[in-house]
């Protein structure tokens, strides 16, 4: 395996769920070069690829499809904060989660949309149609949360939307 | 004309320009994610800051007249204030649309 290719493979194994742009940034290589090596690594099943919400993420092949989707979402700082609260509380009402994390309801709902869609979080409704949030697979989620890493540009965009949502809501 | 302006102006133009490129980039990424009118307006408001630095650069390089630059700057202030006011005013209608109450 070429030196560059093993660097790409090592980076994917060290930060499972890393997306393409971030990979290019941390390795300081040309995008075409990274793409070429990723294609070769995929052909030999050394790396798995997932396209989710307009981004392409890369994983060691040992992660199953649910884990791959979970890692992609947990790389978002705010989504990780929401999941951490649910790990502590086990079950919580959306208003309480928003308050504990310190985000506007609109921010929470946007992240919940994806977390529910990818089956990390479930919305349970009682007889009066009141929603309670629970983690679909708490143990696996806790394990993945420790492995998820967020990129600096991703964190900045997350914090920007937190700020704007709060400013416009209050 | 460039010699008439101090290095302080050049430095503040660079800092403001660099900072607004970063902010406008964040606002663009946020708008692409959310696709709401509020985020479009916040993006446009921040974009006026970038245009402000750009016109300042044009003036320093003698490509735009001082008087034109002055008018442009205050015109951009009007645009910035306008975008933010509309963003604040339309928050409620955006919210109801987001939860599907109108559809």
Automatic annotation (TrEMBL), chain A:
Gene3D superfamilies in alphabetical order: Winged helix-like DNA-binding domain superfamily/Winged helix DNA-binding domain
Domain of life from the UniProt record: Archaea
InterPro entries: ArsR-like_HTH (IPR011991), HTH_HVO_0163_N (IPR056504), WH-like_DNA-bd_sf (IPR036388), WH_DNA-bd_sf (IPR036390)
CDD domains to which the protein is assigned, alphabetical: HTH_ARSR
Domain called HVO-0163 N-terminal HTH: residue spans: 2-71
Signal peptide bounds: none
Protein name stated in the entry: Winged helix-turn-helix transcriptional regulator
Automatic annotation (TrEMBL), chain B:
Keyword Transmembrane helix: yes
Domain of life: Archaea
Listed InterPro entries: DUF7471 (IPR055894)
The entry's keywords: Membrane, Transmembrane, Transmembrane helix
Stretches that traverse the bilayer: 12-32, 39-60, 72-91
Name listed for the protein in its UniProt record: Uncharacterized protein
Lineage: Archaea, Methanobacteriati, Methanobacteriota, Stenosarchaea group, Halobacteria
């Amino acid at each position: 395996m070429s030196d560059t290719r093993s660097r790409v493979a090592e980076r994917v194994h060290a930060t499972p769920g890393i997306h393409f742009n971030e990979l290019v940034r941390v390795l300081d290589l040309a995008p075409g070069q990274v793409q070429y090596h990723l294609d070769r690594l995929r052909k030999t099943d050394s790396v798995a690829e997932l396209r989710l919400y307009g981004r392409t993420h890369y994983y060691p092949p040992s992660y199953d499809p649910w884990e791959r989707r979970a890692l992609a979402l947990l790389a978002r700082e705010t989504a990780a904060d929401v999941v951490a609260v649910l790990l502590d509380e086990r079950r919580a009402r959306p208003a309480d989660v928003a308050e504990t994390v310190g985000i506007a309801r609109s921010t929470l709902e946007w992240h919940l949309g994806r977390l529910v869609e990818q089956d990390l979080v479930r919305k349970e409704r009682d007889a009066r149609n009141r929603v309670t949030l629970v983690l679909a697979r708490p143990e696996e989620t806790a394990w993945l949360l420790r492995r998820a890493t967020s990129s600096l540009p991703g964190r900045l965009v997350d914090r920007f939307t937190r700020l704007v949502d709060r400013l416009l809501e209050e | 004309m460039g010699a008439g302006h101090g290095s302080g102006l050049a430095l503040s133009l660079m800092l403001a320009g660099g900072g607004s490129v970063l902010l406008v980039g964040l606002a663009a990424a946020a708008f692409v994610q959310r696709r709401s009118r509020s985020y479009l307006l916040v993006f446009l408001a921040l974009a006026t800051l970038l245009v402000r630095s750009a016109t300042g650069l044009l003036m320093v390089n003698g490509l735009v007249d001082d008087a034109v630059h002055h008018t442009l700057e205050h015109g951009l202030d009007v645009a910035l204030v306008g975008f933010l006011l509309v963003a604040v005013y339309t928050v409620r209608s955006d919210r109801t649309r987001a939860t599907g109450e109108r559809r």
